[in-house]
Amino acid sequence: MRRRSFLKAVGVSGAAMSAPGIILPAWSQDTVKVGCLFSSSGAMANIEGRLNYVVQMAAQEINRNGGVLGRQIEVVTTDPGSDWPLYGQQGRQLIQEERVAATFGCWTSASRKAVLPVVEENDSLLYYPLHFEGEENSANVVYMNSPPASSVLPALEYLMSDNGGKARRFYMLGSDYVWPRTINDQLKGYWQQEYGIEPDAWREQYVPVGHADFQSLVNDIKRFADESGEQPIVVLTVVGNSIPNFFQEYINQGISALDVPVLGLDVVEADLEGLDTEPLVGHLNCWAYLQNAPGERNQQFLDAWASYVNENDVPFRPDVSIDPMVSTYDGVHMWAMAAEKAGSFDVPEVRSAFPGISFACPSGYDIKLTADNNYVHRGVFIGSVNRNQGFDIVWQSPETTVPVPYSPYI
Amino acid sequence: MTSPQRQQTMHGSAQTALYIEDLTVEFDGFRAVDELTLLVDYGGIHGIIGPNGAGKTTVMDVITGVTKPRAGTVLLDRTHDVIGMHLSDRAAHGIGRKFQKPSVFEHLTVRENIALGVREYPDSLLREVLRGGGPAKRARVDEVLDTIALAAVADAEAGTLAHGQKQWLEIGMVLARDPRVLMLDEPVAGMSNTEREATAELLQRLRSPERAILLVEHDMQFVGQVSDRVSVMHEGKLLADGTMDQVTSDPEVVRVYLGR
Amino acid sequence: MMTAFVHSISGEGPRDRAYLAVVMLLVLVVFAVPLLGLSPLASTPLGLDGYQVNLIGQVMAFALLALSLDLVWGYAGYLSLGHGLFFAIGGYLVGMHMIKLAYVGQSGVPTFLNYMGLSEFPFYWSGMEHFWVALLGALLLTALVSFVIGFLAFRSRVVGVYFAILSQAFVYVAMLIMSRNDTGFGGNNGITGFQSLFGVPLSAIESKVWLATASALVTLLTLILLRRLTRGPVGKLLVGVRDDEDRLRVLGYETLWLKIAVWCGSGLLAAIAGMLYVPQVQVASPQLLSPMLSIEIAVWVAIGGRGYLYGAIIGAILVNILKFWLTRFMPELWPFILSGAVLLVVVVLRNGLMDPGPTFRFLFESVRRQKVAGKGEGA
Amino acid sequence: MRAGKIVLCLLLLVLATFVPVQAADIDRQGLVGIWCAGDDAERRDSFAAMLSQVESADEPTRQWVQSVLSAYREGDLFCTAETAFRPAGEAYENVLTGERVDALPADANAPFLNIPLRRALEPVSRAVTLVVSPEAAERLGAADGLSRSLGVVPPALIEELYATEPDARVRSALEQVLVGVWLASGDPADQQRAIAALAADPTRQNLTTLERFVDGAEGSLSPSVEAAADEALSKVKLTVQASDILTVLYHGLSYGSVLFLAALGLAVIFGLMGVINLAQAEFVMIGAYVTWFVQEALKVVAPDLLDAYIFIAIPFAFLGPALVGVLMEWGVVRHLYHRPLLTLLATWAVSLLLINIVRVSIGTQNLSFYTPEYLKSGFTVFSEFAITWTRLLSIFFAALALVGTLFVLYRTRFGLRVRATTQNRRMSGCVGVSTRRTDSMAFAFGSGLAGIAGLALSNIYNVNPTMGTSLIIDSFIVVVVGGVGSVLGTAVAALGIGELNAFIEPQYGAVASKVIVLLAVILFIQQKPNGLFPPKGRR
User: Fold this and answer.
1) Which of A1, A139, A208, A357 is deepest in the core (most CB within 10 A)?
2) H helices within chain C, ranges in order?
């Protein structure tokens, strides 16, 4: 009996190893596969998980209108479990086994860096929906969101203007990884070069990813604010669940946005879900889309999401929409448009179709790709926390901005 | 710790294997052994008896190194400070012990168990592991197997042995290194009459002028049968010392122990 | 040599057959991977593509990792929940080697060093372009780290659950340190952007095939070596440490050094596994140090059955193949299946799939239980 | 810049006195028009103008200004093209006509106030309160808030109010507002007054003010002022430093109480059964979820009791996890009592299972907790030493858990059985203690304690399925340092580690503090392998 179970085990593993060989390229049938690399478990699940459904919603929309090149889109979902190497592993699976025509995925830079060699060695496409530190320009990644120069700097400029409160002292608090550090390095260069601000006007602190207890740090912010000098602000680059934890402590220690406003660079509507935002009114964020973006197109998107959530029992709120969702949604559409334009799903041909592709984004801007790089030109919004766990729009760029992948300030 | 001067002085006679003086062991304020002084001689079997909690096993624990005393001296051959010795060095100095519950390695065979007791290179574990296991070792193992009468089951896993056999096997493991002080903690507990007889015979075979045997046992009859000398402990103290007849007639012993 | 060890097996019990079967499986992998991955056979339906080869290679590296843990847990009885530490040392060093290789003859440094304001490789990267430096570095560093941990833990007689938690604390501390950007190894992102190893581009199928073959071969050799080791005197002593360490000490064995030696050896094996693993996933990140991974290693061994070596290999292969497949087809189900499998194996089977007699083991346990209870009672 | 504004306002004020305002009445329509649709500069100017008028306005106008201003500040002023509405009970009131409507017109929306506008509005609205309000408490609140910034409020107005203010507490609060003016006046008497006021309220902000005053007035001060300033400076500095140290101590205490709550149940279970329960952190999570369910249920069943949900939830947050604990003990742990290493894996599997059950059934989002009014923000003890209510609550719960556990263990029959079984399992079995039932109940008890931790943490941290994972290693460390199963040891260890953390973190950052604490603990174990309070008895 023992032996039989053992042999069975060997048999199963053998079968497991050899079976994928018979899967044929996806576009030989009447569907075309695209892959999702977003975690629905682990630390990133809360914010990242919803993007899986956005891809499916967008695919559904495209399929209703006849699909791409006459083929229906089939979405393959994975769960990398917030484990960076697993993103690479599963990306490899999607590309080499499922033969997906494009992959939509990753939130953190760490996960993108893990997938990067995979898409490059297989010459595949990754649509990356997050704003990030920049300093990268791969032919195999479509950067759906903005690098810092076209997302963070406008917000900073605003906060330092008369209208924004003339901030001249900065408390930078970030999660300890490459995005916050790069952003802060760029900001320091920006302040020094553009405003002549001296290094003693800022303080920099990093917490481990997932850090929850901000008691001491918020107290330190209080001290920083009370020291002599000009108007202080907090540039917050903590990510994930550290964001609501930080704000909870900010509320508890009674600091208001009038005293020390917080520019939360990774703060989205979903981060405010569990919070009483009354004491947070006035803190700022900066994205290429906000739920309160004006216009019919946004309303359509919000309605579509709400009904998709309700029809499919999606375990996320129907009434919360965040930038990465829209960026993901844009990505699926822009990929479909590029494939249509190229008349093929082959990556080189799809890529050569990129320049000139333009999509009517729910944000209200007509976003586009140019021949310069794989960064999407998008609009910029600065939002201010309101009492209803959302953001009022303080400022928005008149037009889409030109993305600058490499910052001049480092 | 004992001062070097004390180690140099003579304690007991040339016959003295173990010299124990003013030994005190405490557990959270509770004195398990209380200023005990005791001499164990070569060539004989020295039984220690006493009611539960008298501190008998604790004395053995101290000699083996499992327990650290609070105060006191234990000397081997009147010169070697046992308490300061590293646990594994004690075996090299000839102190061996069988635990109260049979502690054999149940996943190893009887032969392998005994082989663990034989050391060809007592100074180097590395050499023992690399070069040990030669004919000399095998011969010694066979010798011990004969002594403890387990040659017939030499290749059985120790876990499959009967209770009595495990006791003997453990004695065998300790015996393998030819100890000069052999401590046996309740060797006949749970044994049948036949097994007990066999154990008594085994003990007689182990008797040697170069060896002191310290025996802790509840079975008074057994102790009386094999021991040359008996010490009675009570509440960590030595109550009486002498032959079995002497101690059993001691009124104090009768009061606290026998006449309870 | 093969025949030598086949003959060295005395009995013909089920355990020996299982061992042989696992050896055969590994031999098969060693030969089949290059054959089906590189030769003309590769283009036939039987052939393996890069993905499959890579998967096999990763699983083999995990099998080696599991073996290393089984040595300390299955034999010496010390459960380490921190073996990811050594795995990561190997992984990071080979990662450094590959990065340095990519920058040979170029000016500039990887971006993560740029972020720290460095424009040249710091001193501890010197020589890293030579593989042997990285290998030697990994082995020496692992030996040092494992010695320090082993010495601290074993000297103060930290055992059982305490040891497990302590080892987990070590790996956790290491993860926190390596997650810091200023530590200089890419922080949370880790080290990525490898180009080639031994002159073969990592994207080429050749490199995947050779890495997978090497992983299988090293695992095979390690299995044979450990089998010989554990069936010899060292194995007996380890079983002694596991089952009744005090008995062994009173018999005159200085178990401290024995344990340290085995612990360091196990660490070295884990480091080698890391060196094989990282070029295959092309990223060395603090995730290698996550407590979760270290616990999972123990799960592989527990599911396969500890104390048989081949059980660890089977466990690692089964669990990981299941994981790769389920996270792809039924990502929602994977955590449920994993936890269910652990509970089943631990509570019902007691010692994994490879244990010949759970009932026997159960009986033995109940006897031992009495013994433990008896010991607690004292004089 | 701000000084410039003040000068400008002073000029305006001077002008105002020269040109007597005949019609003191405020142009309500004009004001609302600017507030609703004016640009930022117009709005800011309108604040100053309104303030200068409100003093001389009649009582109804004053009331009107105050109510509309506060609605505007709160974002409750809903503008339409012609007028604006503010909430009045269930309905809305047209602020110009006073007429009431049930629903807002479709085009009504609250104008957005950016930060500079809110900064300008805040002092003005406080000043209005000072002028208008008959309540001393309201005026005190307003005066307190003004000390941060005067904005466009003319200092002369504050001096005037200070001169006429009847309430002593409000007066001393106004002194804090006026220190800037007094210090800058050059009049030694005023400067003395300012220094005295600053010394009376030794905050860091006042310390900064004093420092700047002393540094800036190099040699230009009269000797007596300089001496007073130096004395005040050293006194304030000392007080601020003392309050800083107390703050750090308090942070350590509050973090320690969190650690203690998380570790206590673990310690009880570990002490009794030698079982490390890796799912302990998930019981914390379940406790928090149960608390949330209680809150949601109260919203439906008894909305009046919602404010007290934290206390109503106590028994549920205890019993819920306790029940899961019993199930787990019965289904898994009891089969593994003599294989602690496997228990480690089994309980890890249970933790994975629990996380994923919650994830699939409820979702990964952070739960939204209602914060009762009495838990919002906190109070200042002295100087910079402030206590927040939520943290105080967690300390309270930690104390409650400590006392409760000690009581249960030392004053009840159940506790007697637990202690007996911990010390000698076999003997307890012999004297008739059902060790099976004791194990089961103790496991439930330990799990319930974790649930209480979840309750206490729900107002401090996010509540989501993985909330426990960050706690688990920290709580083990606490148990190991405290000594197996010692409740007191756990408390001391938690406090010690909390304090250590609180002292290191501000200096070296959060990562370093975790690393240093863990390394310290590892070295500590070298010295005391059995923890601070080693288990009694022979082993």
Assistant:
1) A208
2) 2-8, 14-38, 50-70, 84-102, 111-115, 131-155, 160-179, 205-231, 233-250, 255-281, 291-304, 310-329, 334-343, 358-377
